[in-house]
Every structure is written in C-alpha cells, then in structure tokens.
Design goal:
With 298 residues, the chain is α/β, with parallel strands linked by helices. Helix content is 38%, strand content 19%. The chain has 10 helices and 8 strands. Strands 1-2-4-3-5-6-7-8 form an 8-stranded mixed beta sheet, sandwiched between helices.
Length: 298
C-alpha cells in the first residue's frame, strides 16, 4: 500500500451497512471532515427537477462552461447526499471547467432499485430538455460518479442507449460497483481491505436490489451487449473489491468497439482519494478533472 495512505487507515471507520441510518450519520461526519473546496469562480445553485417524486440537484457552474456532467455520489446505494458530495462536486467543476449537476437520488433500502436510477435518468432528461436555459450544449453531456454512483452512471448510459434517450457524450467511472455476483478474484479475496470489503459490497447490493433479481439495468456487468455506449474513463484502486469487475468491464467495452481509458492506481484502496494530502490522491483527482475537460471539449 502507498505509505502516505497507510498512515490514515486507522482513521477510516469500519462501516458495514447493517444499520443504514447510523452509517449515513457516520458517512456525513466523515465527509464533513474533508477540507472545504475552493468555490471561487463557481456559481452554485440548488434546484428541483420535476419527476415522480421530484429530484433535488445542486448545480455547480464554472464561468463560460458549456459541457455538463450528471454527477452521482458514492455511498453503497445507501449513504450520501448533496451535502456529503459537495466537496467532490465542487472540485470536479473547478478542475474540469464543466457544469456539474450533482444528483440527490433516493437511497436504499427504503427506496431500492430502480429508484436511484429513475432519479438519475429524470435528471439526464431534464438537463437535455433544458440545455439552452442552463447554458449547456446538449451534445456535451456526460455521466459520472464515484463507487456506487459510478455504477449508477454506467447503468444510466445503458438506459439512455436502450431507450433512445438523451445522447450521452462520455462516462466517467471512478471505482464503479458494476456486478452483484461478486465472482471475481478481487471480490472473493478482498475481505479485509480498508473502507470497502466483500461483506460491505454484499450488504450494499442486498439493500439496493431489495430481494429482487439483478438485471443489467441494476448491475451493468450483466449487460450482454455493450456496443453503442459512450466512450469511457474507468479508474480502479488496487486494493478494492470492485477492481477486477471494473477492468473486465473496460475490456468488454473495448471489445464492443467503445473507446476506453483505463487507469489502475497502484497502492490505493477504495475511496482513498479522500486523503487529499497523499500525492497519489492529488494525481487521481487532477486526472478526473482533466479527463472530463478533454472529453467535453469542442
């Protein structure tokens, strides 16, 4: 493990997701400890997207930005909201020069699949429909996120393709959760890795699926056909249970004719980019912003 990260492991709580309400509070406390982002040059606005039910969003607008990303927070489908994601959404907007539309999607287990994906799709459709009023080029809309949010972003790209929905220019997937089956080497062997381990992944999928069988709409790795999807950036952490399913998904996208940039970060663990003092974290975050900026350039 990267020695700059290893020193912080005792500070990471051992979340197991058995008590979602308690874990949400712990997650919020952890997010509040992250240094506040620099929001200079950003216009930030809370809006509500009409849907059933309505979906809260927070829009981060850098000056002269025309591209946009529908941004989906992490938290195992169970934790997280607009407030916990604020530091990351603001950083992404500042680094990428892109309008970031952070989505406050409904959480499991109270709202299992497809609630979160329905919320995300409603925001994508709303963004495309209101692009002119938002000052956004409708041909330059990406989807992205961290962890469970990155898995939702991948599912969102699949749904938009299958429903002939709004065109998605790019998918930015950071350590996505893509496969409920947990059959890869990393899922089977990473039982005691920091922050995310096999048992926590199992609980996450159990809450999200709510006892229903998984479909490709819920677990994108189950999709038989990945052709026609937008180009993708996929980042993986070496000591993360999701690692191997993410690499396999990247390879399948490539084999389906989709352009992919894949970056496996050595010595890192799931969510370790929250340790902002580490040099590897700084490179990870800077790369996410740079990739999105390049993907949505004219």
């Amino acid at each position: 493990m990267d020695p700059e990260l290893e020193a912080f492991i005792p500070l990471f709580p051992r979340a197991d997701l058995t008590d979602p309400v308690t874990e949400r509070k712990n997650f919020a406390d952890l997010a509040a400890a992250v240094p506040a982002p620099d929001v200079t040059g950003l216009d930030i606005e809370d809006r509500t997207v009409p849907a059933d039910p309505d979906v809260p969003v927070r829009i981060y607008r850098p000056r002269q930005a025309q591209g946009a990303v529908i941004w989906l927070h992490g938290g195992g489908f169970v934790m997280g909201d607009l407030e916990t994601e604020h530091p990351w959404a603001a950083r992404m907007a500042g680094l990428s020069g892109t309008v970031v539309i952070s989505v406050g999607y409904r959480l499991a287990p109270e709202h299992p699949y497809p609630a979160a994906l329905d919320d995300a799709y409603a925001v994508l459709a709303w963004t495309a429909e209101h692009a002119a009023g938002l000052g956004i080029d409708p041909e330059r809309i990406a989807v992205g996120g961290h962890s469970a949010g990155a898995g939702l972003a991948a599912a969102l790209a699949l749904r938009a393709r299958d429903r002939q929905g709004p065109p998605v220019r790019y998918q930015l997937l950071n350590q996505p959760g893509l496969d409920d089956r947990q059959e890869t080497w990393s899922q089977r062997h990473f039982t005691d890795t920091p922050w995310m381990n096999r048992d926590k992944v199992t609980a996450s999928w159990r809450h999200y699926l709510g006892g229903a069988p998984a479909t490709p709409d819920a677990a994108p790795a189950r999709a038989a056909d990945l052709s026609g999807l937008p180009a993708a950036y996929i980042a993986t952490a070496e000591l993360c249970p999701n690692r191997d399913e993410d690499i396999a998904y990247a390879l399948r996208l490539l084999q389906a004719g989709v352009s992919v940039e894949l970056h496996q970060w050595p010595g890192t663990f799931h969510g370790s980019q929250a340790i902002l003092s580490a040099e590897v974290s700084q490179r990870q975050i800077a790369e996410l912003g740079a990739v999105l900026r390049r993907a949505l350039a004219e």
